[in-house]
Amino acid sequence: MSLPLLPGYSFSRNAGKKRFHKSQHWGFCNNVSMLVSESKPGIGGELIPGQKKEPKCSVFPKGMGSDAPSWVAFDKQVLSFDAYVEDEVPDKVQENYRIRRYKILFYLEDDTIQVNEPEVKNSGLLQGTIIRRHRISLPPPDENEFYTVNHFNINTDVVFYGRTFKIYDCDAFTKNFLKKMGVKLSPPGQCPDDPYLKIWRKNLDYKMRVYPRESSYPLKRFLEYDRKVLRFFCLWDDSNSLFGDRRELVLNYFLSDDTIEIKELVPHNSGRDGMPFFLRRKKLPKYGPPGVYQPGEVTDKLVLNIYSNPSASQLHGYLLDSLKLGKLEQEFYKDSDLSLGTTINVWGRKVLLCDCDEFTKTYYKNKYGIENFTSISCKAPPLPKIERKFPPYTGFGSEEDSLLSCIGLWPKPYPHLKDVKKFLENDSYGNESNILRFLAKLITNQYADMDRLFIISYFLSDDTISVFEPTEKNPVSGIRMFFKRMHVKKPGQRDFKCELSEYFKAQDLYIGAQVTVNGYMFLLFSADEYTLKLMEKNSDKFPLSNIELILEKLREKTSKSGDIKQIFRAADPGVTKKMDYNAFRKKVLPRKDIRRLCKSSRLPLTDDLLGSLLSIFEDSEEQINYESFFCALNWRIHPMHKLVEMSALKEKYDDVSVKMPSLIPFKYIDYLTFLKDLCGTEEQ
User: How far apart are CA 613 and CA 626, in angstroms?
Assistant: First the structure.
């Protein structure tokens, strides 16, 4: 039994309630006051008794599966409906309305709608996406609600922004989805035909039946072969004509309309203007150049007659010659006429097809079954190399300047004379002078010049040679210039010749070499320590300074290593393991050989005096040091009234005092190291 409705016996229904507003049920529609909506709630947003709240989004029946949100469960699922709209066409006699087809797309994930109209070519209408994807509200008076999946069915009308879309069909997925939701589908309908299209097709059929046209399909060929081009690399050999040469061309054959264009590959610095086209794009006749035709004689279509409506002054149509009785026939090049090795006629010019690209090869292989694509070289055969001959040297200036005056008008230094890189690498810096200094003497028959000594300097930076002579008459430096620094030619060359002369190189200078400088022949018999070390360090450039090669020659001359050891042991009685440099390089000959040399030289001495003189220089083994003997006979050094034997250990010149290489650059020789390198054993 319920409690009576008396004060104190009932609970307040508004306890805890905060919203007491009333919904607006009345409003204006088209400036007329009317009931706007009957589905609005009561006071505070509570539903009126007997009222049901309509959902704002689509509600799907619950089935077996996960409770995933709609944007996950219905992702990429779209309902597609076919609809049409009847658009009124005012002020036009041919049609009163027009039928326009549309495709309505309903996205299940968020209840958005998109309307597309299929594009029709040459329709003159704005087609494509008519309504972009978004939620569309219902027409008034329910504009506060949106379209859901329950509003769509076959043979129903939907209104989007004042335009009525009549749905007449949908796709298979949409039908299956609506059936699973329990929606009863109406039978599909048909879209009515557009009256204007009926009239247009009727007129077109009438014209095609009454006025026949030629059976050509240029549009079909254009759509099939558009942007497909056969490319050939060609050659036009015009070398037989005056001032003609070989020209490389590129031929492009357009499959869409059988036209040909030719471009010329102009090489750099060829002296020709780079024209854009050798032949503009057009059909190329096989037997050109043809005769001169009158304007309108060569046409694709032949007009027989024109006709018009008697009641109208404008032209209505024309009749074409379908049999082509008066058409001028011309043969043009087709793709079947082009192949590698074929010569085509380009308006009187013979052009040879030499090669093609990969697309062209694939096209001919698929269409004509051609497998052989042997290319032909477009390059001209190399011309015979003609050796350039220069006139001989005239004697004026240097040979290099005379040669460069024949090569060009602008005077330039000869390349090998001004090698900057070589100069920077071999120029003197720090303790490296890069100068080879040799001590030399003249090879002459003049008795007064036999004892003259010279310093020959070779500069590695520019391959020049200078010669100085040490003298006691110069109190400043002790030397005087004999030959100015310059390049020195090798002897035995003609003075007036076409080619350049050869000059002395660093490899031509070594101890024992004979060098001819300005007509004087010098014998190099010594060098300073820097020169010897530099030549030994760069033994690849100076092969005569290769120690391994020297030891190999000594091994060939010496078969018994014991004899050499005994000689060194006898020369070193104190067992210091070192011997004097002069004693190491001392040169001796038997007594009879020295006597024969003196007799052959007609020495003005009697036999007794010569024998006494030889006995002075004879050792215990009857060997005579011929260097000391002939030095004693030098009357300039040893006058007759002062017969004094010169010691071989005394140095006449010092490189410190006179700035020249010493006659004896070493004091002692470590013969144990020498024996180890020569024989492979070490003296104990």
Answer: 12
